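To whoever is covering the structure queue this week,

Two jobs came back overnight. Logging them here so there's a record in the thread.

Job A:
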Amino acid sequence: MKQDCIFKNISVQITLNFKELKPKEVKLSLAYKESSEQIFKILKKVLNLNKENENWKSTFNTHFDFHKFQSYRVDISFDDKASIGSLDFQLGELLQKENLVKENTYYSIQLQSQLIQQGNQVFQHWSGIKLLNTDGFFRKSDPFLQFYQWDGEQWNQIHQTEYIENNLNPTWIPFQLDMGLMNFQDEFKNFKIECWDHSKKNPPKHKYIGSLEISIFDILSSQSKIFELYNPNHTSCGSLKLLSFQINPNRNFLNQLKKTQIQTNIFFEFTKNSMKFHQISHQQLNIFQQFMIMIGQQLFQYNQSNSGKLFGFGGNYQQINKDYFEISKDSNGIQGICSDYTKCLKDIAFGNKVQVTPALFEIVKQSELFKPNFTIGFLLILEEIGDEDKFKLFLNHQLILPIIMIFITIKENVNQISSIINSQNNMNKVRLCSIKENDKKSIQILREEIFTIIEQEIREFYNINL
């Protein structure tokens, strides 16, 4: 299989309604950016919308990546006139909510998502009948099969079988393919099978035997399950026979993510040693702000409120002496939480050492209230903690909850907490990451590490096959 091909796994349907305008022709241009990019990149794709009653509709397929914050901008023009405005949406939020409505002065857009790769596996067992011999009189072909998906623009290879030596009537090993990869969940949509004679040369020079385009509907309708191959240079090049065929319902990560909300709880350290890291500058975001923008915002889109909770520990807030305090009590969304963080700094008395165990129990309590949905707890700390023994006891208890707690150290070589979390007594619900000060790439590396941990934990807890 080609490793450089990115398969499209989500279909986005766009329904456009004009408030007053009555256009004759409507076009939509797409722009795109990821979390590492500052500006939208204009895509070559321009969609012509079709009118249905009072609405204009179109669909496009795209690739969703859990590890990226993917934002689209749609730009509308009509009757060969200039743009009448654009709207933005996040792909992760659309996947989770399935339905979003955006509007401006001139129009409203309804966006709906449908998973292409839903986890349904198509089991298939193929054999060949009287295949074309491309090896002359003294040998026979060494046939193998390649399977291709048509994504609306090109054929993408999705599977390749083993080759069978010296055999014109081979039987290949059975295998399974995701139905979405084969035909975008459309039983009438063709996929392609190519049959080749294997070459052992380097580089290989495989010889073409024949091919066919077929749909699942064709397969189910066939009595014989025998399908003739086509080769423009030969009147007969053999057939393929389907010995066994079955569609097996299954779950995958995207399907689970679509129906599972994520609750995000973030704890920031406010000790005297951390004061310099909380300094606000108009020139550059501090490390806590970077975390909320680069990682918090990306996770908030998987919550129905498009938000999370921000806490502090290691200091006192508004003269209230507690182990931890909530900063984002009444705010909603990334802008509100970032604003509350900035405002709270003037009312915080920075303390000495941080107590992490009460914060961990708060995250566990939130998980109990939020299950069966998934809860993530982040604890951004500077160095040593003040409740080492209690923390060790906490790690000794196994949690059977949809939860992961991730410590993020702002200084490297934090031996105390590293030795505790990495000990054998840790029951795998607490992980440790680090971020380097004044390193622009560090936050991006951290994001990738964090989202890998979260995906692995979701797969493991909900028993999702890789």
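Job B:
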Amino acid sequence: MSHPGPEEMSVFPRVSLRPEVYEHLRHVFLNQELLAAVGRAEAERRFQGLLLVLSHPPGFTCVRASTHLAPLEEVRRRLAQELQQRQQTTVAVEILLHPRVPDVLLLPVIGPRSLVPLRSEVVVGAQCGSAVLRGANVFAPGIVATPKFMKPGDAVSVFSDVDGRCTRGCTKPFQGNKVFVGNGVSEMHRATIFAQEPAKGLGVRMTEPLYQSPSFDGVLPDLVFLQNLPSVVVGHVLGPRPGERVLDMCAAPGGKTCHLAGLMKNQGEVLALDRIRNKVELIRQNAAALKLTCVRAFCFNSTQAVTSDPALLATDGPPFPPSSFDRVLLDAPCSGLGQRPSMTVGWTLKEITSYSPLQRKLLHAAVQLLRPGGVLVYSTCTVTLAENEEQVAWALQTYPCLSLVPQEPHVGGPGLPGAGLTPDQLKLLQRFSPELSHVAPPLSTEAPPPLSNEAPPLSTEAPPPLSNEAPPLSTEAPPLSHQADRDTIGFFIAKFLKN
């Protein structure tokens, strides 16, 4: 049986970009190195495929289990019971284990489903609409417009205001650019939602979402954490060990910080920095909820986190002296162009290209803070060369003490050609490319491990060689493990050793 391509799976148009941003990204994905590797037709197909998949949600909901508190199978069992009770069904919830990431649970997303919109329309903001497409209900702050006399119990259709043009509180049908994300039942009066005091709480309970995935609001908060698969992989790639001193330079909201502390079995020290004070408090709350006492969070600008001046050194927190950490995670601020679903990116080219200088300042501080023999992992959730492979090339040239090392697990693809890196260097990088999510994997003499009901140990073997050549088309659908690894957000990971 043939598997569908991105065009056949689409229900939304390609992500909307400003013309200059479109041309910039097209130049990135049709650069001369990539054209030489895959050809113009394949490069163009991948670029158009990227624009299409970015406007759609990933095919799996990924949950990271708090395995420092309970075994994975126990978390899986309790999660299945909780979701069944909430959905008031006797049908077992499908929860799969990942063959190479030992603390991940995957729930296949069902969709797009064939639904008929209702006459009563609720319009929500684009961010709220994206959350609905990933399984969330609609909360009152995300509602922009409702029917004039909407009351609790009313059946409504939910539409996402793609361009942000709907007037708040509007009662007339919105005729602007909107997309249908599902049907639900109102939980609030219209007057409550648009009262002078901003309403909070559940506004619309989604009963027929276009993409069906469980809502995780309040579900086992100490045992499961909603996190995209590449974000979980980052923690394993850094590989922190009990007793080490680890720095998370741009830590909010704390998902990766808590993962690192859990991998260290709450032994050692994880220092988390972020510039925004209320986000730092969120890191502390998340760590406390997960009983992670080795996490300490500080409100601080990480570009200034290193100093050799004894007069400036703090006794407890930043700034720190050079060579203070065994491992450093720099999940850098970025343009976020890999996030899914995203139907419109309203940023200008100037805004999108503004992150590179900040990332280099952060990399400079990270290299100084890392001890010799230590590990630095750099990651972003964007798809550009300038913020990913070009930063790696710059770091290797600027800091001779750095070298790229293999990543484990390596479940993404290689780096994107175009930054002058060698093929061997590109193989050491890990780029998650959702535009390849509906392309069959390269033929292999050995079948990839399937998603199963048993949790296998993390492999210690190096990943197989990867290629930038276009994979051959197949008449069979790729296995679930392959789909889960590719049908993610766009993401990038580089791992350095400081010699």
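Note for Job B: The two ends are 50 Å apart (CA to CA).

Please reply-all if you pick these up so we don't duplicate work.
Q.
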